[in-house]
Amino acid sequence: MRIFLDKFSGGGPPMKRFTFTFAFLLLFFVMQLAISPVLAQNNSTSSSEKYVRPHLFSMSMNSAVTYEQPWPADSFNSLRLLVPGTMWGYMNPANGKYDFTVLDDLLALAQAHKTTVLLVFIQVPQWASSKPNDMSCAYSQGTCDPPNDLNADGSGTNQHWKDFVTALVTHSVNSQSGHINYYELWNEPMDPWQWNGTNAQLVRMAADAYSIIKSIDPSALLSTPSFAWETQYCLTWMGAYLAAGGGQYADRIDVHGYVDNRGGQTGWPENMAAFAPAFFEVLRQQGQSGKPVWNTEANWGSYNSVRHLTDPDLQAAWLARMYLLSASYRIARLYWFSWNDTDLGTLWTPDPNNPRARGTLLKPGVAYQQLYNWMVGATLDQPCSQSGTIWTCGFTRTNGYVSQAVWDTSESCANGVCTTHPYTVDSQYIKYLTLSGAAFQITGGTVPIGTQPILLENQ
């Protein structure tokens, strides 16, 4: 779980996360050992779900792109808005007053680049907060507390919220700048510094938002709040919210699919083998398993020294494995977090002498585009599977095209050098691609595999 702090917001570091109990740690260890080699068998997929659409590749970015930085060079389908200028408290600074300036700038850019938009509802305005002086909130005083016209049991007029949602959706529909296609109810409400109200209050806000959005813009979709799958606390919170009725006001389920190791150290995407099955089981228990799942935040982390991959080759490997495994677990979208943040999953850095210039696409940014090229339009006919430390995922396309992504978790990278070892491949494969975009002919029936996935191709 992370708090997205726009680099211009002046926000502080996130609160410490909840720790595991020994029992839950033991449970997940047992689950890890019991995972079938075929990851996706936990969730049966149709042929259409195995087809990799551009939607899988989606992005978050900070608001510098609206006034001083170029649009991202990587290909992606949807933009997630979680910046100070698009939060409720900013867009609704006083009762009956609205400011959609930053929103319109971002919508115009998205429209110009044919990108859909996901907006996150978050940050109760201080003037509308039930505890306007609450210093425990992540963004500013009172922003994590429920509106003052909404009772703990979900009763009350809830007029502040209804007025804002009505104004926002109406503005979106009528705007010439662009259009909000998707809404996310709240950001990580299992954390009290993000939401300090009750489930009944949040479900009431979901019900009102769902009704208003569908009445004004029937094509728009609303999700659950962004859940998390890392701890039993998070899974219990999600189950309680859905049991309280939250699922009936959601077109999809949103998760923040971080994969940290226990204790907070940076984990690798293969940790999904422990996290995802438990997450999908809660959805099944609450009657929500048929809905699309979007991962609206993921990265290798930072914030402190134990949650950081500094090696750019390892960052590229992490990103590639995250997208491959997400497709295998039928995650419909993965919003990378984030394109141009200086600390969180950075894919690109600006030219220090000219922020408007092309800047530098970092190694994980190059890998992002390669994964897009490898996967979009292909069918994942062989979900990612594990044999010891070696992982493979199989793809097909029309005209007899067959490919296989392969990597070895036992290898690593340091100071620009990545270790590999020979791997014997099926005779149908004639070349392989790397995350840097290079292509090599296969000779002698073997290829060098390491922590960075490569793509074997038969054509």
Characterise the protein shown here.
With 459 residues, this protein is α/β, with parallel strands linked by helices. Helix content is 27%, strand content 20%. It has 10 helices and 20 strands. It has helices at residues 22-34, 47-50, 88-91, 101-112, 159-174, 199-216, 232-243, 272-285, 312-328, 363-375, and strands spanning 57-60, 78-81, 116-120, 182-184, 221-228, 252-256, 293-298, 333-336, 348-349, 360-361, 379-387, 390-396, 402-408, 413-414, 417-418, 420-424, 431-433, 439-441, 446-450, 454-457. The protein has an 8-stranded parallel beta barrel, surrounded by 4 helices. Helix 5 packs parallel to helix 6, helix 7 (232-243) packs parallel to helix 8 and helix 9 (312-328) runs parallel beside helix 10. It is globular, with a radius of gyration of 22 Å. Residues 1-47 have low confidence and may be disordered.
What is the strand content? 15-25%
- Summed over residues and divided by their number, the pLDDT gives a mean of 90
- The count of β-strands is 20
End-to-end gap = 41 Å
What is the makeup of the main sheet? 8 strands, parallel, barrel
Helix proportion: 25-40%
Number of helices, counting only DSSP H or I runs of 4 residues or more: 10
Secondary-structure element series:
HHEEHHEHEHEHEHEHEEEHEEEEEEEEEE
Unreliable spans are: 1-47
* Quaternary: single chain
Strands in their spatial order, largest beta sheet: 1-2-3-4-5-6-7-8
Assign an overall shape: globular
Rg estimate, integer Å = 22 Å
Helix/strand/pairing category: alpha/beta
